[in-house]
Amino acid sequence: MTYNVLNNVPAVLRAFGSTPVNLVTTNNLTGSPGLTGSGAKPDPYFRPSSASSLVVNAGTNVGLPYSGTAPDIGRYEWTGSGGGDTTSPTAPSGLASPSKTDTSVNLTWTASTDNVGVAGYDVFRGTTKVNAALITSTSYTVTGLSASTAYSFTVKAKDAAGNESAASGALSVTTNAASSSTFVKGINFNGGAATINGNAWLAESSAGLTLSAVSRTTSALTPSPAVDGATSGMLNSAIWNSGNFSVDQSLTNGTYQVYLWVIENYAANYRSFNVNLEGASATSSPIGSLALGSWVRYGPYAATVGDGVLDMDVLKVTGDPHLMGMEIWSTGGGGSDTTAPTAPTGLASPGKTDTTVSLSWTAATDNVGVAGYDVYYGTTKANASAIAGTSYTVTGLTPSTAYSFTVKAKDAAGNVSAASGALSATTNAASSGTAYEAEAAANLLTGGAWKGSCSTCSGGFAVKNVGNNDGTLQVNGVSAPSTGSYTLKVYYLNGDPAARTSLMSVNGGAPVTVTFAPTGSWTTVGSVNVTVALNAGSNSVKFYHNAGSYAPDFDKLERL
C-alpha cells in the first residue's frame, strides 16, 4: 500500500517539517481493517534508516484507504536525523570594544562552539537587534548612536537549525562626546589619492612621511562590513613589517585625534600590535586581531604635537603589524591648515605634437602634504581634476601656436601655491602626411610584441614590448608616390627617465638606430622625425632591437 503519511501528521510532528515519518498500524481486536496490500506493517512512503522514533497515538483518523472496518489504533513514528539538531551553541564570550566614536561602537568577541557548527551571530543593543543580516565574523561596528550615551551590548550565536545561544555577558560602552574636530589629512598607505567618507585623502607618496624600514603589499579582499570602492581600495593596500616600525610627519603644533584603518589580509587573528603617539602609549590593549577580511577603524587616539612633528610608533605583539590608512583630525591649536605648498619647479616639455604639449615638473612640498596639481595655459586650467603625479599632457591645442604654461600645487585644505615659472612651447605645424597606426591589422607583430590599450594614443592602442632580442613591429603598406627621400614622423611613448633606442629598417634594408627621448610618462606621446628612402608604392618599416633592452611603445607613423 502506498500513502503519504504527511497528509495527516499531528501537530506535534508537524514541527519537524518534511522530516520522514513511518505509519505503523495495529488491527482492531474484534474486526478486520481489510487493508490494501499485504503485511502487518505496510510499505511506508518514506523508509528512514534511523532507529530513533517519536511515537504518537493517532486513533482512528489515520487516513488509510481500507475496506471494511478501519483500525482503531495507529501511531506515527518520526525517524531519521533531519531536523533533529536541538542543541544550541555556547554563548559568545570575551565581548569587548576596541574602539568607539561619538556615533559608533566597534565590538569584538570570542567565537562560540556548536555540536554541528555556528552559522553566525546577532548583536543586541539592549533588547534591539542591530544587524540586518547574520554576522559571520567575530566583530561588528554598531553605528547610528548618540554622543555621550551609555549603551549595553550583548551577542548571541545561532546554528543552521535556528537554535540560539544564551546571550554573552553584557558590555556597557559610553560613546564619545560629540566631535568638534576638523579633518586635517588622510593617508592611503601604499596607495593613491582617494576620497574616503567625503574627505580627500593623500597618496602615501604625497603625504610627507618619514618611515622606518617597511614592506608594502596589496590584496584583493572583500572587506567586512561592506564598504564603497574607494574605501575597499584603501583597505587593500598596506605597509607592514615583521617587527616594530615608525611613521613620522610634519604637523602644525596643536592637539589631534588619530584614527588607524586595519583589515586582516592574511589569516584570522594573525597579528596584534600597540601604538605610541608622541612617545606615549595610545592603545590601552593590543589592536589588529581580526577575522580574515574584517576591518576596523581604530581610534580616536589623542596626540599633542609641540615640535612640529607627529611621531607614531607601531609596536609588534604578535604576527606582522600593518596599517592601511591613517586619519588625522584637529581638536585645537593646529586645526586650520593655512600654509600653501611651495611652487612647483623645473617645468619642462619632453614632447609635443601639432595639437598636444607634454609637461613635466619637480614636485612641490607642503607642511601637511601636497594633494595634487593644476596646469594652466595662460589663465585657462587644462585639467578637469587634480593631477596626482608630476606630468601631464595638454591636448586640444592649435597647430603652430605658442602657448605659455604654468603649474600650481594645492593641499587637502585647499591652499594653492604660487605658480611655477612659465614655460613657452609652440605646437608643431599641422600634419599633412599620411598616418599609419602601429596596431593596424595589416602590420606584423612577432615575438613578445603586443597591442595594448593607450588612452592618449591616436587609435586608442599602442604596440608594446618591442626589442630585447624578441619583439618586432613591422608597419606595412607605407605608401610613397614616387621613389625618393621622405620624412617619417614616429609617434611613441617613453616613460623611462633615460632615452630608449630601436633599430629601424625599411623594406628589409640596412637598419639605422633611432633615439627616443623620454616623454615624461607612459601616457605621454612624443614624436621624432627620421629621414628614409622609400620606393614608389607600398613599403614596410620594421622596428626591432638587437640588444638586451626595449624600444619605446609605438603609437603611429606619419609619412610627411
From TrEMBL:
Region (Disordered), start-end ranges: 75-103, 332-351
Q: What range(s) does the Fibronectin type-III domain occupy?
A: 91-178, 340-430
Query: What domain of life is recorded for the organism?
Result: Bacteria
Q: Name one GO molecular function term.
A: carbohydrate binding
Domain spans labelled CBM6: 434-560
Q: Which GO terms describe its biological process?
A: cell-cell adhesion; polysaccharide catabolic process
**Keyword annotations from UniProtKB, A to Z:** Carbohydrate metabolism, Disulfide bond, Glycosidase, Hydrolase, Polysaccharide degradation, Signal
**What Pfam family is a match for this entry?**
fn3
Q: Which PANTHER family match?
A: FIBRONECTIN TYPE-III DOMAIN-CONTAINING PROTEIN, PROTEIN SIDEKICK
Q: In its UniProt entry, what is this protein called?
A: Carbohydrate-binding protein
